[in-house]
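B., you asked whether I could sanity-check this one before it goes into the benchmark set. Here's the sequence:
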Amino acid sequence: MIFYPAIDIKDGKCVRLLRGNMNDETIFENSPENQAEIFEKLGCEWIHIVDLNGAIDGIPVNHNSVKKIISKVTIPIQLGGGIRTMQTIEYWLEQGLDRIILGTAAIESPQLVKLATKEFPGKIAVGIDAKNGYVSTNGWTYTSSIESLELAKQLEGLGVSHIIYTDIEKDGTLNGPNIQQTEKLAKSINIPVIASGGISSLTDLKKLKKSTAPLNGVISGRAVYDKILNVGEAIKVLRS
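And here's what the prediction gave me:
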């Protein structure tokens, strides 16, 4: 399993939100690229980036910060937030990103997912952000009528490389991940699943590692920035 440290960018700064609330932020680093370099030096194999402003506005906003990160590290990067057109996907892949995460587009424009996975095989992931079992979009400001499991099953056979599953009610709370729902979703599909939301300790990672459903990796942000979770130890646990 892979440990994905999270860099959430809002107004050019590395922040963490509580349950995705843009008005409930904690700034951890004024320079996201410096944080990315730290993660690489600690042995991380990937970096997970979200353009929070982009997710709300529907277009990439924090271009400069993301491009600085790309220029500073050599490890693979996946990016989500405001990516809703083929032009934007092409742009970011040309800039050197290794994986694009589509979220809102998977609901509002499923044809884009089909086209993107065909054009860029292995490069397109989908973020399923769930609130009470239903998919949330537009930076978690809108909850759809589609259940997360239903959307996951709809993505089967489209060539989606990974699904990032986040329980919004857990995100940023440090109360532990929703292992039951994560396992349920992972068991229902053949697409590799990355767990996200609420990771608070090595114990959480060990539980996910022992999950009855095969998981590709785990994303963690708040626990790392609050120094509750040691990155080196987290990587060791998931690699073992």
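One thing to flag: The CA atoms of residues 14 and 154 lie 33 Å apart. Otherwise nothing jumped out at me.
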